[in-house]
Amino acid sequence: MVAAEAMAATTTTARVSDFFLRLGDEPELLAEHIRDPEGTMAAAGLSSEQIRTVLAGDLEGVRSAVDEEFAADPVRRRLIVTPRMVIHTPKPEPEPEPEPPEPPEPPEPEPPKP
Amino acid sequence: MADARSGRAPRGSLVVVGTGIDVTTQLTPGARAAIENADEVLYLVADSVAALRIAALSPRARSFDEFYGPGKDRRQTYAEIVDEIVARVLAGAHVCAALYGHPGVFAYPGHEAVARVRTAGLPARMLPAVSALDCLVADLGLDPGRTGIQSYEATYFFDRRPPVDPDAALVLWQVGMIGEAGGAATPAVKPRFRLLVERLRELYGETREVVLYEASPYPGAQAAVTRLRLGDGDLPTPSVLATLCINGR
After folding, report:
1. Cβ pair B24:A63 closer than 8 A
2. Of these residues, B78, B108, B152, B156, which one is catalytic?
3. pTM of the model
4. Which of B43, B100, B204, B213 is catalytic?
5. Residue range A6-23: average pLDDT?
């Protein structure tokens, strides 16, 4: 077991979502993470399983890990998001204008009197 | 909100920003400053980390989620969101509306709110941001300048049948929600998606490759990419956030 894994294997309450937030707020950490993702996550106290999940790079795997963290925290639970997709809602067709009443037929001209 | 120095009535303002797809690495400095400095932040995002980051940047942040409801007409939801933004600005608040991705791409409320605030004579602007299309271009290596690009919402494309250039790239947004009006994907998406693929097969032929793409909102995680041929018999059901892409040739 490498040193980073040994450190991360200890019981931890560190969260992947907290680490992601730090990446947004700490440019030096982000730069270091790009260079050494395993080392930065271990230093942040993430478990070896959490590190494996992120390093695997599988979108659904990371999403599940993050969702579990939110579900387990009563404060964060209210921040769980359901994606709200744009719905294609065409404008309703305008009601057709009522057709104007037919003008009365002009009276037939009387035939010329002989 | 009250302007104590001038004694004048407070003048509200609006900035509409996007969070990008990955809020940790794609939130621009301008968008971040707008969120941090607003009197009120109203947001709509697609993942929980984005909600957490906005809440961390502004304790005054509030989600638009309350305006959505099962079966509720989406036009009504959008109208209420716009009304809420405009009402807060007219009340004198400096408001930031934060929407995921680019705030002007597939996001009617942002454009409408900016227009209405400007009509009311108050300052409003929209800041550009990273959209799902930007991520797709990077992840799939697609250059819109090479063949041109056609971009449609999937339901619109299926209903309206616009003319298609089969040599140009085609991007269909929200294929995982095709035909849905209620805001949630139902099992009916699968047969509708099959009909969409049949339509594409008529246009492009059955050997053309199609990509189902979903950008990753997490740093380090890869985009979800599924490649198939239009002639494939076994079609997957696209995820709610999936975008369909056919590259140009």
Report:
1. no
2. B78
3. 0.84
4. B100
5. 75
